[in-house]
UniProtKB/TrEMBL annotation:
Species for this entry: Arthrobacter jinronghuae
Protein name, entry field: GNAT family N-acetyltransferase
Lineage: superkingdom: Bacteria
One of the Pfam families matching this protein, by short name: Acetyltransf_17
Keyword Cell division assigned: no
Amino acid sequence: MGTDHSTDSTTDGLRFASFPAGYDAADPAKADERTAGWFDAVNLGFHEDRTKEERLPAQVDGYLRDGRILTAVYDDRLPEYAWNPAVPVATYGTMVNDLNVGGSELLPTHLVTAVTVRPTHRRRGILRRMITADLTRAKDSGLALAALTASEATIYGRFGFGAATSTAGVELDTRGGLEFTAPPRGSIAIADADKLRGLVPEIFRAHLERTFGALGRQYAYAMRAAGKWSGENTEPDTAVRSVLRYNADGVPDGYAAYKSLGWQNEPHTVKITDLVAASDEAYRELWRYLGSIDLVDRLTFSEAPVEDPLPWMLTDRRRYKVKHVEDVLWLRILDPAAALGARGYFGDGAVVLDVEDPMALAAGTFLLEVRGGVGTARPAAAGEHADTPRVQLTAAALGSLYLGAVSARTLAAAGSVQAGDAALGVLDELFSAGPAPYCSTHF
Ligand SMILES: CC(=O)SCCNC(=O)CCNC(=O)[C@H](O)C(C)(C)COP(=O)(O)OP(=O)(O)OC[C@H]1O[C@@H](n2cnc3c(N)ncnc32)[C@H](O)[C@@H]1OP(=O)(O)O
């Protein structure tokens, strides 16, 4: 949605407005009324506590740094005694950040977040109206791809989003310390929180540039890693400790943030709240440090890569257990030719994709040609390229296929794509032969 625009819907008394977060004009130490109302509505929708008024300006600051646009839906016909009419009955937020799609450049991606519709207003099409207008506008503005992380898996398939990456929730038994097969390299230091806050975006950028599937992060991540904000709001989290890893030249190339879950928790457990490495070595050495902390029996981390090198580094791989795997990114192709052209591939091949899209944004026939891992894609006429392997799929299935986390053969077995053996072979060679995508950014 664009900045600062509003539309009235006179048929049902609903008023839609989009604006950036803002401070009160008369008192810049406060959020403005519409921003405060928007935060109130989001907290209601996600069953979070109300944000304390004095914490709102920090949240406004973070949202402005992220370049977020907030959409609010107001009901001008709420009955007498109802909650403040300046609190919207529905919310929707957007921002743009870079996704590593394996191509020569990161792909700016339209991110959708903070979607709530008040329980008294649910299932009358408010989400559908917001998302239809927003995705159309995002496509018109030239963005090829949209993404979100979903509260429930059943909501967004109908809007053309497909689950595209997952992370593993892992647990490590560290009693007596973890032993690694490779010798230690570089060094680790407990970080100065203020300095870490400045370093986190730099380290994450290096991680993003080398990690297929990684997505740029909002400002809150650096604040949380430094314990300045907690996971849920802008209150400090005084339990968080952070470490930096330095390479052999003394340059920081990774960090981890963690906290004890308390002595009442048996066995004594430390939860890793964030861990970002800009090299394989940094990843290993951060875990070596975490596995060596005295008085800790167990480590947990809910954002580990599904293809995790960690168990392969340990002399006792059974210390490492995957407790659950959860989807993270859901991708929505807005412009198939641009999205397919931006991605990096493996090998050579050509395939024709017939994309169905109930929202019509990505519908059409496209020829993808890949030479030496570099792809070009363009719309094709119906009868063209009759000799090229062909696949029929929905926009949501293309979103799932896009980063190769699932193979075309698996999607075909699930009935989500229709293709002959030749087309499935080409798709799997091009899309799934490389590294598994890893995205640890939630938004
Ligand atoms: C990216 C994010 O922010 S994810 C967070 C999503 N938000 C939440 O989980 C907070 C709690 N839930 C809510 O606020 C609301 O129920 C929402 C936002 C999920 C749905 O809003 P609504 O306005 O009720 O949705 P709307 O009426 O537009 O429904 C559109 C379609 O989605 C379906 N739908 C909506 N919510 C759900 C759901 N939770 N599960 C399954 N289907 C759903 C509807 O049945 C409807 O289907 P149809 O058009 O194919 O018949």
